[in-house]
Amino acid sequence: MVDLDDINQLVDDRSYTVIGSTIMLPKIEMELLTVKNGKIVAVEENYGISRKNNLFKLVLYCGTQHKDVEFIGKNKLLSGIGYIESIYQTTNYRNIKKDINWLNMYSGKIRTISFLDSKGVLCRKKMASIPCHYCGIIVPLSHITVDHKAPSLEKTPNRRGYAVLKTLRALSNYYTVAPGEGKKSIIAQSTLVGIPHDPPMVPTKMNRVASTTPGSRANRDKITEKGILFFNIANLYFGNGSRMYNYDHFVHTFLNLAPVCSHCNSSKQENRGTFIPKPYQFY
Ligand SMILES: [Zn+2]
Q: Which of 63, 118, 191, 251 gets the most CB atoms within 10 Å of its CB?
């Protein structure tokens, strides 16, 4: 369980300067990070993080002056970090295949699967199965792979940055310019405010028509100053106060993991989602 004292301790363990009653973390220790064009990069602005009582603040320095530009209260910070911890898949993200909520979301079900036996006889067995998120083909659960989704730019290597954005917008709270609209964001947001819910079904992408809201995609992929503040404090927490940030907490969560068939998960990802099975009738 996340304890604010732990975060405070991480902050207090560092050398700091005091301006008024506000504790300033030395910028060189923090090296604040942001996400630009899907990449995790150092911030260009002269930001720092400070804490005053239960408010964590993003501070903009200008010469000897500074001003608070954003803040997050103790409870919001705790609920966000705690939520990420609760959906983090620890060391083996493939264990998500055993997560009943994830299986329900992606339409995992007991279905009848056809086999051909050694005598050429068609036989059928009921077994756990799940559709590929991209092409929709239903395969036994044992045959599905787990893929890290890289939203919007699937061919870019900057998957971690997009995973961070995906997590931030699912948390909402103005961490991205536009909040997440997808089913997983709905789950995250209703969990965060404590509303009981059944996990909604995440539709496959087979024949899916993309959202036509102009600019909405770009705004969902744009981090705000509040998002920068949250991301860096979360990193401070997940990285145990070291500068060796651990993005795993943003990458290996159900928000970012989809069931994918081996065809769609192969290196030929340009084929992803274009596989349309033809209705040949062999039997
Ligand atoms: Zn597929």
A: 251
**For the chain, which residues make up each domain, given as ranges?**
75-99+147-270
The answer to whether the CB of 163 falls within 8 A of the CB of 247 is yes
Among 98, 74, 61, CA closest to 254: 98
- The dihedral over CA atoms of 229, 232, 234, 236, expressed in degrees to the nearest 10, equals -140
4-31, pLDDT tens digit by residue? 565 665 555 444 454 444 445 544 345 7
Euclidean distance between CA atoms 17 and 25, whole angstroms: 7
Instruction: Give the length of the chain.
Output: 283
Q: By C-alpha distance, which of 234, 207, 210, 213 is closest to 223?
A: 234
**Angstrom distance (rounded) from CA 74 to CA 56:** 7
What's the CA-to-centroid distance between 102 and ligand 1, angstroms?
A: 17
Are the C-beta atoms of residues 103 and 202 closer than 8 Å to each other? no
Q: What is the 145 CA–ligand 1 centroid distance (Å)?
A: 10
**How many angstroms separate the alpha carbon of residue 191 from the centre of ligand 1?**
30
Residue pointed to by tokens 């989602």 = 273
| Strands 17-19, 22-24: pairing kind | antiparallel
- Cβ-based burial of 268 (10 A; exposed 0-12, middle 13-18, buried ≥19): exposed
Strand partners, 72: 56
Kindly give the distance from the C-alpha atom of residue 270 to the centroid of ligand 1, in angstroms, as a whole number.
Answer: 12
pTM for the model:
0.73
Mind listing the pLDDT tens digit for each residue in 92-134? 777 788 888 788 889 999 999 999 999 999 999 999 999 999 9
Amino acid in the structure at residue 9: Q
